[in-house]
Amino acid sequence: MNSNHIDGKAVAARLREDVALTIASLSVTPTLAVVLVGDDPASQVYVGNKVKFSQAVGMNSVERRLPAETTEADVVETVRALNADPDVDGILVQLPLPAHIDSDRVIAEIDPDKDVDGLTEISAGRLSLGKPGLRPCTPTGCVILAKEALGDLSGKHCVIIGRSILVGKPAALLFLQQNCTVTVAHSRTDNLPVVCRGADILVSAVGRPNMVKGDWIKAGACVIDVGINRVADASRKSGSRLVGDVDFAEAEPVAGAITPVPGGVGPMTIACLLRNTVLAACARRDLPVPDGLSI
Ligand SMILES: NC(=O)C1=CN([C@@H]2O[C@H](COP(=O)(O)OP(=O)(O)OC[C@H]3O[C@@H](n4cnc5c(N)ncnc54)[C@H](OP(=O)(O)O)[C@@H]3O)[C@@H](O)[C@H]2O)C=CC1
Ligand SMILES: Nc1nc(=O)c2c([nH]1)NC[C@@H]1CN(c3ccc(C(=O)N[C@@H](CCC(=O)O)C(=O)O)cc3)C=[N+]21
User: Fold this and answer.
1) Is the distance from the beta carbon of residue 165 to the nearest atom of ligand 2 less than 6 Å?
2) What is the value of ipTM here, to two decimals?
3) What CATH architecture is 26-118+269-284?
4) What residues pair up with 232 in beta bridges, in sequence order?
5) pLDDT tens digit sequence for 134-155
């Protein structure tokens, strides 16, 4: 691994270790519930990883796998039952849901104090107002990785490409909370390469393989690539491989620090989910934020 690579796998492993140590010191075992509707193969892998890692850090894990044809009312009922279960600390509804289900309606049912994905209106409001609450996992992972590379982020110009509710928008608020000067770019942004060249920290959360070119990056900048894109690759047994939004070969020599895909933000998302579950377990019992889990 080159010296300017930010090793998301290693940082995530360290965070999971901190989560495991915290759990060992608690008098309760936190429980994460994952709801998966349908049989999307990428979601199956992702949910399987969550269950594997939650058990590895000493957490209880509950899975609710529902068939693709489950009605919206039944998914809502599943979420309500998990809300009512006092042993469940965190609830994650894997997205996307099948097309006949309104995901906003389902997400709105999640008890905000168990909302480990940080997607409910209450969680978004708490983040926006700077109040304590559960923050979305992927953007939290981006902040942790940027701090890993740069230390204090105060005063840095952070440009985020993407404004989704899951990633771009909460990332903007989290970097603002770190005292960055934040620019949010999107599909209607004029002169995107010029905007990006102003960034000390460039976060790309778009979903377009190799979109961000080497000459979009200021020399020495920290590049955080959130994109997960599967592209054809005849040299692989599977016939495909994962790439980010950033043209890695071009960006790597210019960047001061850069996250690879895979092995960058992805592993951090799951580690932050486990962290959120512990934070939820503590907050629900009025316990203080454990040492070692603050960012
Ligand atoms: N590593 C991880 O843990 C995770 C990775 N991801 C990955 O991150 C990527 C983004 O996910 P998500 O935020 O959910 O995606 P969305 O599709 O919800 O959002 C994409 C954003 O990119 C913007 N965009 C689209 N095309 C362009 C363009 N040509 N130039 C500039 N901006 C553009 C869109 O702008 P507009 O709003 O104007 O349409 C939108 O704001 C995906 O690849 C996804 O797989 C997602 C979650 C977790
Ligand atoms: N409610 C909800 N919350 C999410 O946070 C959520 C979601 N739904 N739906 C899908 C997206 C996507 N996402 C990823 C998480 C980890 C990896 C990850 O671990 N990636 C590995 C590679 C995995 C592989 O090889 O397939 C890596 O980048 O190294 C990827 C993608 C979370 N999402």
Assistant:
1) no
2) 0.98
3) 3-Layer(aba) Sandwich (3.40)
4) 240
5) 999 999 999 999 999 999 999 9
